[in-house]
Recover the amino acids of this structure.
């Protein structure tokens, strides 16, 4: 029974991080109709910045609870990067055919992959002290890291906070209007350029947050970006591009399937996820919550 | 015998009855106008009949066969073709290639991978002939994206016409074109249609054009057919004048 | 009606001298240079295949390494497990294997929106890559599989012949012939009614449907042909490299294929060929200088997209136009 609970917790853990990444990707697509191929690298960037900043301060007398907050440097940096990238690299291409957007975000992916290596070197950065710092809980006869529970909570809070932000604030209304009908929103006086950069920044923040909270558990590793992109993609195929509910449900499904898949068929874990995505594509191409 | 007959054709977009239980018949050989204000359901009706969007309920019968759930490809094969209100062309292909493609497709030749398209003399000749009919022969080599708006509207119709359809829907063939260009464009279109014996349904907003070229007019309003008759009947129909024509009297 | 239409004569005339130069090359330059060019020609074949999808059908694939890799591994498996050494049979194996995989992947990829197409192709190629790792007892894992020199048209490399010499002469000509043949076939395909239908789909999917072209079917066939060309390139590549590893299945290589096609200019027929050859030299040169080779590629790609989207051939065309308009001195 406890093993089942642990599996469920692991699935939720995975889903929490995936939701942040996929949700960001989906949000950006929903508002701007762009698929940012470098989105995974913003997740990685957030992870590296978080790990590095904490690494600077660790052992220097900063109280541990504060160090957890310092992890936020990751998403903030990712958001800042996004705020710079959108007007410089993406805005010039909105009027051009979509291949060019994909090409430029791919170029960005290449640049960021090497940039991470250039700045932080080829070896992973880790802040395992933060992971161990929370200790562990007894679940039945097993012990489970408390940090993982914290991640699940953060993920849940992020989902709730995002939902509130989008459905309960003025900015959220503007965001939704722009995503549903950009021209109409523009005609009603919405500054679409500003909404775009804000949406992009928010999406990057989410990706960076995913990276930051994962760092104590896994460290920041080169290559984590593309891996994340591909998983985020499975999530949005299942959940539907442009839908936050879809990202949540998709992340949960992927989390569960992966967790139980690893336990029983570790070899073909990735292939099973793809099978799931392929099945969804066949039955419901727009995804479970996507717009056709 | 009717070429096309829709029975209680219906399409909802959420709460809106875009097309509301419409019974619409077209007889072979006739040229009729489909009029109505924006949102009346004219384009939706065409989209349903041509297969661009699925039908919610009702039936479409073409030449006696049920074509309600046919794919676009099947409808084209049966002989239903259409042009578009917002011009839909292959902008990076030449005017000639745009037309030739329709002919290649019609003749089943688009499956040919190992033959040069330019080498097919018969298709090329026919394409040039159609372009001549539409007054576009001089622009044969130009990319479709570079043509003027009037020329693009004509090409849009020509491409549909080149499929040699039995029933041709023309969705606002003169929209977006300057007033003085409208009559020449309609002249060409009606001439070609009559010469080919094609049955045509023309959606139009310009009532001068409608009254001049179409012996039968069907008026739609809020998803239903308001009136169906000759220009005189329509002109004198109070409901039509109230809803669609305003109070202007046409001589 | 002449069997060779007017539009064909100029390209044929331009191609002639180029093929001639390529043919006499081994007698004029160092063996190293010839082998280097062989790589370029192989990548050019892959680029031609890739661009059938991008330039002509409007589909941007980020997973073409899959077909290159499948072609390469098919050769390696055929040599290792079926003990075949005839290059012709090996090419056949590469073509069949990549056709199968392209047909399968194509079924999944082309039915759905263009937006998904890019990531979907990327993801599928990553699955293949991870399989090459996981089933290391079959694929040789990261060590890869060695492939000895095959027999060309039944003639094997002489007992005492130097491998470099073999590659720079016999194998180079073999590659050259396949390259010329592949280019000719692709040229006919893109200028055929089928090719026009693809371009129509690229320009206006809806209208293509409305002239009776079943869009997803044509996309699928284009995908299949594209995969086969790239698989053929992969098969040709293996004897050159002597070895095949999972590196040619990984997404980075797909990115290189995209890069060199865009570099050369994806809106023209010859662009991909030029891009592939230029890239090959660029990479050989740059990899010696910096480890941040990917970043360099990324920066160039971003610059290309923003400033020179038509690539090298586009620039050449523009310069040619300007010189035609300039008054005679």
């Amino acid at each position: 029974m406890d093993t089942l609970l642990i599996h469920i917790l692991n699935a939720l853990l995975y889903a929490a991080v995936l939701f942040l990444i996929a949700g960001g990707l989906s949000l950006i697509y929903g508002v701007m109709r762009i698929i940012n191929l470098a989105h995974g690298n913003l997740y990685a960037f957030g992870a590296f910045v978080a790990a590095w900043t904490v690494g600077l301060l660790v052992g220097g007398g900063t109280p541990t609870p504060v160090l957890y907050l310092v992890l936020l440097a990751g998403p903030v940096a990712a958001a800042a990067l996004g705020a710079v990238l959108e007007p410089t690299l993406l805005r010039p291409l909105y009027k051009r055919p979509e291949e060019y957007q994909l090409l430029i975000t791919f170029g960005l992916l290449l640049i960021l992959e090497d940039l991470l290596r250039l700045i932080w070197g080829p070896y992973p950065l880790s802040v395992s002290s933060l992971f161990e710092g929370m200790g562990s809980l007894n679940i039945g006869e097993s012990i489970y890291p408390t940090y993982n529970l914290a991640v699940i909570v953060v993920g849940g809070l992020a989902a709730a906070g995002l939902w509130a932000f989008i459905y309960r604030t003025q900015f959220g209304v503007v965001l939704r209007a722009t995503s549903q009908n950009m021209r109409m929103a523009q005609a009603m006086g919405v500054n679409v350029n500003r909404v775009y950069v804000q949406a992009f920044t928010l999406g990057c923040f989410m990706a960076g947050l995913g990276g930051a909270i994962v760092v104590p558990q896994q460290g920041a590793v080169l290559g984590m970006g593309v891996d994340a992109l591909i998983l985020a993609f499975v999530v949005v195929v299942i959940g539907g591009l442009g839908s936050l509910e879809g990202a949540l449900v998709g992340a949960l499904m992927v989390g569960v399937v992966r967790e139980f898949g690893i336990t029983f068929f570790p070899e073909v874990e990735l292939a099973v996820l793809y099978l799931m995505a392929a099945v969804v594509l066949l039955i419901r191409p727009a995804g479970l919550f996507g717009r056709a | 015998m009717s070429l096309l007959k829709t029975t209680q054709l219906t399409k909802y977009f959420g709460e809106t009855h875009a097309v509301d239980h419409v019974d619409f018949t077209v007889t072979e050989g006739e040229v009729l106008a489909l009029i109505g204000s924006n949102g009346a359901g004219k384009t939706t009706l065409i989209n349903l009949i041509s297969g661009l969007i699925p039908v919610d309920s009702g039936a479409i019968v073409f030449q006696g066969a049920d074509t309600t759930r046919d794919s676009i490809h099947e409808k084209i094969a049966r002989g239903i073709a259409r042009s578009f209100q917002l011009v839909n062309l292959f902008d990076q292909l030449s005017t000639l290639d745009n037309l030739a493609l329709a002919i290649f497709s019609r003749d089943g030749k688009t499956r040919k991978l190992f033959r040069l398209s330019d080498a097919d003399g018969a298709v090329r000749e026919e394409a040039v002939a159609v372009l001549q009919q539409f007054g576009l022969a001089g622009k044969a080599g130009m990319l479709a994206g570079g043509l003027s708006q009037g020329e693009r509207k004509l090409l849009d119709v020509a491409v549909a016409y080149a499929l040699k359809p039995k029933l041709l829907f023309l969705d606002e063939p003169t929209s977006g074109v300057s007033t003085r260009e409208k009559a020449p464009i309609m002249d060409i279109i009606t001439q070609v249609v009559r010469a080919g014996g094609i049955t045509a349904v023309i959606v139009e907003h310009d009532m001068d054009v409608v009254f001049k070229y179409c012996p039968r007019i069907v008026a739609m309003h809020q998803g239903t057919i308001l009136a169906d008759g000759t220009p005189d009947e329509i002109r004198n129909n109070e409901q039509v004048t109230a809803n669609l024509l305003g109070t202007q009297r046409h001589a | 009606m002449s069997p060779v239409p007017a539009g064909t004569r100029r390209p044929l005339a331009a191609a002639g001298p180029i093929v001639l130069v390529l043919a006499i090359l081994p007698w004029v330059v160092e063996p190293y240079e010839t082998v280097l060019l062989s790589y370029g020609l192989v990548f050019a074949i892959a680029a031609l295949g890739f661009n059938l999808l991008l330039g002509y059908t409007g589909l941007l694939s980020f997973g073409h390494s899959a077909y290159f890799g499948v072609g390469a591994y098919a050769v390696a498996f055929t040599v290792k497990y079926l003990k075949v050494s005839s290059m012709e049979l090996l090419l056949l194996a590469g073509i069949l294997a990549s056709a199968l995989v392209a047909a399968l992947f194509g079924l999944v990829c082309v039915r759905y929106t263009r937006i998904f197409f890019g990531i979907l192709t990327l993801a599928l190629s990553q699955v293949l890559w991870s399989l090459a790792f996981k089933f290391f007892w079959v694929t040789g894992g990261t060590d890869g599989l060695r492939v000895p020199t095959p027999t060309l048209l039944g003639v094997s490399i002489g007992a005492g012949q130097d491998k470099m010499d073999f590659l720079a002469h016999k194998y180079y000509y073999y590659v050259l012939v396949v390259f010329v043949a592949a280019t000719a076939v692709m040229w006919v395909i893109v200028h055929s009614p089928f090719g026009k239908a693809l371009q129509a789909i690229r320009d206006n999917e809806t209208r293509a449907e409305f002239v009776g072209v079943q869009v997803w079917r044509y996309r699928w066939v284009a995908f299949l042909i594209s995969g086969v060309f790239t698989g053929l390139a992969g098969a040709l590549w293996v004897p050159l490299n002597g070895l095949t590893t999972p590196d040619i299945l990984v997404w980075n290589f797909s990115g290189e294929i995209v890069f060199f096609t865009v570099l050369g200019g994806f809106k023209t027929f010859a662009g991909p060929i030029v891009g592939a050859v230029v890239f090959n030299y660029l990479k050989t040169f740059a990899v010696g200088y910096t480890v941040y080779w990917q970043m360099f590629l990324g920066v160039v790609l971003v610059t290309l997209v923003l400033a020179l989207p038509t690539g090298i051939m586009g620039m050449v065309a523009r310069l040619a136009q300007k010189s035609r308009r300039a008054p005679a001195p």
